[in-house]
Amino acid sequence: MKEFEPRLVAFVCNWCTYTGADLAGTSRLTMDPNVRIVRLPCTGRIDPLFILKAFERGADGVIVSGCHPGDCHYTAGNMHARRRFAVFQDLLHFAGVDPDRLTFSWVSASEGLKWRDIVNDAVARVRKLGPFQEYQSLSRLDEEFEGEFTSEEPAMAGRQE
Amino acid sequence: MKELQELARTLLSEGQVKVVVGWEDSPGGPRPAFITRPEDAERLVFDHRCVHNLVAYLSPGHVDVARLGKPAVVVKGCDARAAAMLMRESQLSREDVVLIGVRCGGVVRDPREADTLTADSVAPRCPGCDARQPALADHLLGELPPPPPGENRRDKEIARLEAMRPSERWAFWQAELARCVRCNACRQVCPLCYCERCVALKTEPLWIESSAHPRGVMAWHLTRAQHHAGRCSDCGECERACPVSIMLSLLNRKAAQVVEQRFGYVASDDPAAPAPIGAFRTEDTEEFIR
Amino acid sequence: MSVVKTISEEALAGLVRDLVASGTRVLAPAQSSDGAVDYQAIQELGEAVLNGAMPRRSLRAALQPPTEPLFAWKRDARGLKIEPMRDPATPQVIVGARPCDAAGIEVLDKVMDWDYKDAPWFARREATTVISLACREPQPSCFCGSLGLGPSSGQGADLLLHRVDSDYLVEVLTPKGEALVAAHSARFQDTPGAEAPKPAGAADADGMLAGLAAAPQPWVKAVDEWLGTHFADELWQQISLRCLGCGGCTSVCPTCHCFDIVDEPEGTQRGLRRRNWDTCQASLFTLHASGHNPRNDQSARCRQRILHKFHIYPKRFGEVLCTGCGRCVRTCPAGVSLPEVLRDIAEKALAPEPVSGGSA
After folding, report:
1. Chain A residues touching residue B167 (CB < 8 angstroms)
2. What's the pTM?
3. Chain-centre distance of CA C173, in angstroms?
C-alpha cells in the first residue's frame, strides 16, 4: 500500500518567487518534490479561480507566492493580490476548507532557503491532512444517476500515420 | 402612502421623470409597479411588506425599463446602497435617476407568508439596521417607524458555523448547496451582477462548470461571494429569489464581515466612498501570509 | 371504470418498506434540511409529508435530473473513444405525488417522443411508478381546475390515492399500477363500488381565474388563438417590466424541460458531455454564434414562455404545457403571476368584437 504523497500546485510570480525557487534549485537545496509550479507574471494575475481549479483537478494543497510588498515588479500587483486573497481564504475557510491546504507566502528572488522551507512546511501540513477527498469527490456525487461507462471499441479511429 | 402618491403624481405630470418605479398591492402582497401616468400614482404603496430591491431595475441589461425613459425609484436604505454602488462603478449616473427615499422600520422576509412585521417574520438583514433613512435620496418620505424587531440571526449563524471544525462546516455547506440547480436566479435578481459576460458563462477556458453537480455549484457560489466582497448591498434579494431557499446571504454577509474587519469598509449609500477591492493600503492585514 | 381498492396507512408504510428493501427508490414529499418540503428519497413512510405543504419543486428532476452525463470521451493513441453513459435507471416509486406534478409528466411525454425519442427520459419513465395523492384542498395560487385538471386528477398517475379517514382509497389507473398492486397484493384490500370523495373547493389562483369559468367559450382556446395573432401586442412590454428574468419559474415548473448541452473536460484527454437544465428566461438562451439574439429583451422572453405553454405546445401536441400547480406564482420574487397574465389575455380575447363602421 503506497503511502500518500500529497500533490501541491504552486502559483508563483515570475520575478520573485519563481526566481527564488530557481535559486533553491541551483543551490542544490533538498526539498519535497511534491510541488508543481505554475509561473505567472505577478500574484496580481492570480485569480481565486486558479486555486479552485487546482483543487477540483486533484491538488491536495495549493501554494500562492509572490514578491514582498514594496518589491512588486509591477509596483502594486501584490497589494491587490493581498486584499483579494485575504477575502478568498477567509471565504474558503468559511466553506469548510482546512486552512492548512492553502499556503500564502512572500518569497523574494534571493530567498531560496525560504522557498525550501515554505514547500517542505506546506507539504508536511497537507500530508498530515491526507488527500483532499472532499473536493476531489465533489463531481461524482450524482445522486440521481448511477450510470457506468461501458467499454467499447473506439467510435472514431485516429488517423493512420 | 399619500406623500409618495402625490410626489409621484407631481414628478410625472411635470415631466421630471417618465416612470415611477415603486410598489403596488397584489393578491400576493406588494410587488414592483411601473407608474407612467399621473392618474395611476394612487396605486403606489409603501409599508413593511415592501421587501423588494427596486434598484435591480436600474441595473444595465433591464432594457425594458430603461426604454420607458428617466425613472424615479423608491428606495429603502438598503436599496440606496445598491444604487450608490452602481454609481460608484459607473453603471448609473446620478442625474439619470430620481431617488425617492422612504424611512423604514424593517420589512418582512416574504410578503406571501406574513402580513405583520414580527421578530419571526422580519427579513434577516433588518434587525440592527443603521440605514433606515437613506441619505442618497432626492426626496425623503414618511415617518421614521420604530426599529425592526428581532435579533441579528445571521451573524449568530455565522458565528455558530465558525465555531465548527472545517469538516463540519464543509458538511453544512454541502447539504445547503445540494439543492442548487444552477437556475441563476441569484445572479439575475442582483443589481450588482450586471456583467454582460459573466465568468460563469465562459467556456474557453471553462472556469466554472455550469452543471448542477456539487463541484460546479461550489465554484459558482464561492466565486459569486468573492466577486461581491465589498460590493454587496445586503438587500437579500438573492436569497429571496432562490427557489430552494439556500442561505446565500450567509456567504455574502461573511464576505462583508471580512471586508469590514480587515479593511474597515462597510457598504454605504455614499457613491464617493471608494470600494475596498481595487484599493489597498500598505498596512493591509497579512497575518495569513508566511 | 378504474379498479378501486383500499390500503391502510399501516399497509402503505409496509409497502414503502418492501419497496425500499427490494432496492426500489421511493420518492415522496418530505422535509428538506431547511424545513421546507421537496420530493426526496425516503426510507420510511413516516418521513413523508403527505397532503401538507406543496413540494417546492416539481417531479421533473425524477425523470430529467438537473444535470446528467450523456457520454464520456477519451482520447488515446488510437483516436477518440466515445463511451455512452448507460443509466440502469433504478426502479423508483413516487408516493404522494401531487396530481399536477403527475399530470406534468404525461404532458412532457409528448415532446419527449416527438422529433426523436428521448432515451434517458423514457428509460427513467419506464422505471417509474407514480402513486398520486388527491389534494384535500387547493393551496393559494393553485389553478389546476382552470386547465381541466383538478385536485383529484389521475392524469400521469399509475395509482391515485384518496384519503378517507385513516385509509386510502386506491384507483388503479394503468397496467403499471396493476402490476404494482399485484406484486404487493397483501397490502391492498378489494373495495368494489367505493366512491372517491369529492375534493373540497376549486383551485382558482387567488381568484385570478374565477370569473373565466362562466365565459361563453372555453377561455384556454380563446387565449390560444389570441396568442397566435398578437405577437407584437403591448401586453408583452407591460408584463415584462417587473420580470427580472431570474428563471426561478422555469426551475420549479412540472412542464418546463429546456436543456443545455455542455462539455466538461477533465484535462486534455478526457471529458464528459452533460445535459443540464436551462431556462428560456436567460438572456443568452437564444444567443446565436453570430452575436445576434432574437430574444434580446425581457418582453420577448416573457412572451416566449407564455406562447410556448399556451399556443405552440397546444398547436403541436393538443394540450397546454401547464398543469396549474401555481409554483411559478409562489416562487416569483417580482410578483409576476401567470394566471393574472392569462386572465388579462382572456379578457382581451373574449371581449366582444368592436362594431366596424365601414366596409369590411
Report:
1. 96, 98, 134
2. 0.92
3. 19
Interchain contact A156–C (C-beta under 8 A): yes
State phi, psi for B289 to the nearest 5 degrees.
Answer: -105, 125
Residue A1 pLDDT > 60: no
Is C80 in CB contact (< 8 Å) with chain A?
A: yes
- Under a CB-based contact definition with an 8 Å cutoff, are residues A106 and A87 in contact? no
- H or E element, residue A129: helix A112-129
For helices C338-350 and C219-229, angle between their N-to-C axes, nearest 10 degrees: 80
| pLDDT of amino acid A150 | 46
Q: Return the minimum-mean-pLDDT range out of B2-16, B96-110, B147-161, B265-279.
A: B265-279
Q: Write down the pLDDT at residue A156.
A: 41
Chains contacting chain C through 3 or more C-beta pairs under 8 A:
A, B
Mutate to test the interface with C, among B31, B183, B197, B203 (most CBs of C within 10 A): B183
C155 touches chain B (CB under 8 A): no
Distance from CA of A71 to the nearest CA of C (A): 35
| Predicted pLDDT at C290 | 95
ipTM above 0.90, yes or no: yes
* DSSP assignments along C162-180, one per residue: EEETTEEEEEE-SHHHHHH
Measured CA to CA, the distance from residue A100 to residue A152 in angstroms comes to: 43
Strand pairing class (B19-24; B44-45): antiparallel
Between strands C3-8 and C79-86, the pairing is: unpaired
Cα–Cα distance measured from residue B225 to residue B208, given in angstroms and rounded to the nearest whole number: 14
Phi, psi of B288, deg, nearest 5: -90, 0
Rounded CA-CA distance B239/C352 in Å is 45
Identify whether the C-beta of residue A72 lies closer than 8 Å to the C-beta of residue A66: yes
pLDDT of residue C354: 58
How many angstroms separate the Cα of C29 from the Cα of each of C53, C55, C140, C254, C313? 9, 6, 18, 15, 29
Residue C110 three-state SS: helix
Q: What value does the mean pLDDT take over residues B99-125?
A: 93
Q: Which residues of chain C have pLDDT under 50?
A: 1, 356-360
Contact A51, B253 (CB under 8 A): no
| Other chains touching B, judged by 3 or more CB pairs under 8 Å | A, C
- Pair B22, B54: CB distance under 8 Å: yes
Pick the residue with more confidence: C34 or B227? B227
Closest by CA to B237, choosing from B226, B252, B227, is: B252
How big is chain C, counted in residues? Answer: 360
Those residues whose C-beta lies under 8 Å from the C-beta of residue B110, and which sit 6 or more positions away, are B51, B121, B240
- Nearest-by-Cβ selection for B64 from C61, C206, C237: C237
Q: Pick A27 or C355 by higher pLDDT.
A: A27
Residue C268: Cβ-neighbour burial (10 angstroms; 0-12, 13-18, 19+): exposed
Cis peptide upstream of residue B205 (ω within 30 degrees of 0): yes
Cα A122 to Cα A101: distance, rounded to the nearest angstrom = 8
Residues B22-55 pLDDT 10s: 999 998 899 999 999 999 999 999 999 999 999 9
Which three three-digit cell numbers place residue C174? 394503468
